[in-house]
Design brief:
By secondary structure, the chain is α/β, with parallel strands linked by helices. It has a single domain, classed as Rossmann fold (3-Layer(aba) Sandwich), CATH 3.40.50.10320. It has helices spanning about 1-15, 35-40, 60, 65-70, 85-95, 120-135, 150-165, 195-205, 215-220, 230-254, and strands at about 50-55, 75-80, 100-105, 110, 115, 140, 175, 230. A hairpin with a 2-residue loop joins strand 4 and strand 5. The termini are close together.
């Protein structure tokens, strides 16, 4: 029974996409928030009522390239603002799309390891709050709760944006990047809507400045034709059904 309970808990965490942090092994001094109202005032946001939060430069193109090419968003990139190469690449993509942006300097990797954001999380939360408070956004977009393929920064970004949207009762405006499928399972995508050949070419052209991320592109390219975003409501309806079915299964097994 103990093993069954452990299996059930593990499965529930996998289904719901809950992020559990490991003990803090990187913590130094907590950093302060980076975005202030004056920073947003400097941007040309007239007529722009969509905002997108991404963990890394390139995420906005991998998961939303066609969207940001055809609609205007304020794009908030959380990491790599102190990485000259990544910053140059990101700015080149933003110039191509004409989208206003803020690129923050929160850590991606620390001492060669993926940073756990223990010293940054409170500041990132405050930055998200500042942006969401700034104006009435018609659409708020970010990573899905599973972090697409499971990237911890994607998961944490999703969790923080979702929490703030729930606090402000904005969940009906919240959209997640689409569900990720491994290359071998790509045929399982139920929603067969995909980019046209022309749109896919335009997305590839948009990605070209990211020369440092070509290996990432190769790894994820099977998902490039798909940008089927999911609303907060639909995502969590699906998860509630999955959890309910899972609980029924384990009750039956017990």
């Amino acid at each position: 029974m103990k093993k069954l309970a452990v299996y059930a808990l593990t499965a529930l965490l996998l289904v719901t996409g809950i992020v559990i942090q490991a003990p803090n092994v990187q913590a130094k001094t907590k950093v302060a928030a980076s975005i202030h109202k004056k920073d947003l005032d400097k941007l040309s946001l007239t007529g722009i009522d969509r905002v997108m939060f991404v963990a890394h430069p390139d995420d906005e193109t991998i998961w939303a390239g066609n969207h940001i090419r055809t609609h205007k968003y304020l794009i908030i990139c959380i990491t790599n603002g102190n990485n000259k190469k990544r910053m140059k690449e990101f700015k080149a993509v933003m110039k191509k799309t004409g989208n206003p942006y803020i690129m923050l300097k929160y850590p991606d990797k620390t001492n060669g390891k993926r940073d756990n954001w223990n010293t940054s999380r409170d500041a990132v939360k405050q930055d998200i709050k500042t942006v969401l408070d700034y104006k009435q956004w018609a659409m708020i977009v970010t990573h899905n709760p599973k972090g697409e393929y499971g990237h911890i920064h994607h998961k944490m970004t999703s969790q923080m944006v979702t929490e703030e949207c729930l606090h402000k009762k904005l969940e009906n405006r919240l959209m997640y990047f689409g569900k990720y499928y491994k290359k071998k399972n790509i045929g399982k995508i139920k929603d067969s809507k995909h980019l046209s050949k022309k749109q896919l070419k335009q997305k590839n052209d948009l990605f070209k400045p990211y020369q440092s991320q070509m290996k990432v592109k190769d790894h994820l390219y099977h998902m490039f034709p798909y940008e089927n975003w999911i609303s907060y409501k639909k995502w969590h309806q699906n998860k509630k059904t999955s959890v309910s079915n899972l609980l029924e299964f384990f009750c039956y097994m017990a």
